[in-house]
Amino acid sequence: MRHVSDDQRRARLASRHALAPGARVDSPEAATRALTVLHATEPATVYLSCWARVDGLAIADVDRALFGDRTLVKQLAMRRTLFVFPRDLLPAALPSASARVAATERARMAKDVEIVGLADDGDAWLDSVRCDVLAVLSAGSEEPGAHERLTALEGPAAHDGLTALEIRKAVPSIDVTVQRPGGDAWGSSRVLIHLGLTGDLVRGANTGHWRTSRPRWSRTSQWLGAAVEATETASAGYREIVRRWLYSFGPGTEADLVWWLGATKAIVRSALVDVGAVAVSLDGGDIGWLLPDDLDDVADPGPWVALLPVLDPTVMGWQQRGFYLGAHGEQLFEARGNAGTTAWVDGRIVGCWVQDAEGAVHVHPLEPVSTDARRALDAEAHRLTEWLAGERVGSGYQSPAMKAATLAHEAR
Fold first, then answer.
1. Could you give the strand order of the β-sheet that contains 342-345, starting from the edge strand earlier in sequence?
2. Which domain holds residue 363?
3. Does residue 398 lie within any of the structural domains?
4. In the chain, N or C terminus with fewer CB closer than 10 Å?
5. Contacts of 49 (CB under 8 A, 6+ apart)
């Protein structure tokens, strides 16, 4: 069995994830493909993940890909997480990862509706409100009153989509609050999310700042100019996603894939067989997997550093993270398992970064680094400070290291 060392895994990470200087790419689309998908739970992560990998990136470049050319599309999928997908990967996601989450969401919503007495048949209620939303977002809808409700709203025409607030005004049946047993509540946004999971709607233009998310919801066919033809089967969809993940993140273990996909061992094992994945041994004794035409070593990229944002795909790409995380896991991940900001040196995380009150970026190592590495990290912090131009990026995922670094900086 071929062996892939941790050093080789770090070399692959540097090259495949477009982090080493010689491996950087020229567009947000290329950065997204390098990582299979981008995390989009926090809107700023999409921009900062691209910044780390695309020389000369402007905010307008990401906006162009998301809202102009629409070559990148936001889609809820694996682990009920919002990602940015390359447009051509959507057909694989819809019948597989997205459909799996959609089925779970539908069952929970229907049950909640019945428990609170909103309707006797939760599935029928959900079908009805989904139809109401689709009708009001469909140009030329023949539903009685749909056109009048649309034109009465302030805002764009139907093909440009509507905000959640505008949809609630146009579709009274969706304007509900369902108080779940145990205290949690959900409303209209949950229905819109489900319509996104099923591929009927898509998050279109953002009406807020690039650091916030206030999307207009659009019919997928209207936003992308054509209906998305989903891959015929879930297994075919998983096969394509796993194929791309293995190129970006391989070698990875079965446990890595089960976690990242939010899927079962059976799904992952079937996909590995379908792509002809080859088993390799890893440092520490685990078994990893590579694509059959990707067994050669990747050249050492030389020295490199990177500053990555909260929930960056490189940090969140594996469940078993020892080869790049070391002993810093408890400091770099918050209690729910979400990664904070990270500072990297030659394929390993060595610390985090935070901003001060003026927006300047500061690196805070968690271990000693060489003089050259510290100089390079500080230069990268200066580059990011200039790019942000005074903008402060908040986060709901503050790691212990970030909190400690912020307190230490404020105490100076």
1. 305-308, 342-345, 348-355, 361-365
2. 326-410
3. yes
4. C
5. 31, 35, 38, 39, 308, 309, 312, 313
The three-class DSSP label of residue 355 is strand
Which bin fits 145, alpha (ψ -120 to 50), beta or left (φ > 0)?
Answer: left
Rg (C-alpha) for the chain, rounded Å, is: 22
Distance CA 67, CA 76 (A): 17
- Residue 332 identity (one-letter amino acid): L
Q: Is the distance from CB of 46 to CB of 53 less than 8 angstroms?
A: no
CA–centroid distance for 223 within its chain: 20
Per-residue model confidence (pLDDT) at position 308 = 98
What is the reported pLDDT for 150? 40
Distance of alpha carbon 325 from the chain centroid: 20
178 neighbors 185 (Cβ within 8 angstroms): yes
How far apart (Å, rounded) are the C-alpha atoms in residues 113 and 373?
Answer: 56
Determine contact, residues 263/100, Cβ cutoff 8 Å.
Answer: yes
The pLDDT of residue 315 is 97
Whether residue 403 lies inside any domain: the answer is yes
Q: How many CB atoms lie within 10 A of CB 100?
A: 22
User: Residue 42: what pLDDT?
Assistant: 95
Asked whether residue 402 is assigned to any structural domain, the reply reads yes
> What span, in angstroms and rounded, lies between the C-alpha atoms of 327 and 315?
14
Residue 179 near residue 119 (C-beta atoms within 8 A): no
How far, in Å, CA of 261 to CA of 78, rounded?
A: 5
- Map residue 127 onto helix, strand or coil: helix
Say if residue 251 is preceded by a cis peptide, omega within 30 of 0: yes
Spans in the chain with pLDDT lower than 50: 139-159
Is residue 191 within 8 A of residue 129, CB to CB? The reply is yes
* Residue 192 DSSP one-character state: H
Which residues of 232-296 form beta strands (DSSP E)?
278-282, 287-290
- Report the alpha-carbon distance of residue 116 to residue 121 in Å, rounded: 11
For residue 146, the model assigns a pLDDT of 39
**Number of domains forming the structure of the chain:** 1
Position 397 in a domain: yes
In this predicted model, what pLDDT tens digit does every residue of 17-42 receive, in sequence order? 999 999 999 999 999 999 999 999 99
What ranges make up the beta strands (E) of 146-184?
177-179
First to last CA, the chain: 54
* Rounded CA separation 183/191 (Å): 19
pLDDT at 184: 83
User: CA-CA distance, 399 to 352, in Å (whole number)?
Assistant: 9
> At a CB cut-off of 8 Å and minimum separation 6, what does 255 contact?
319, 320
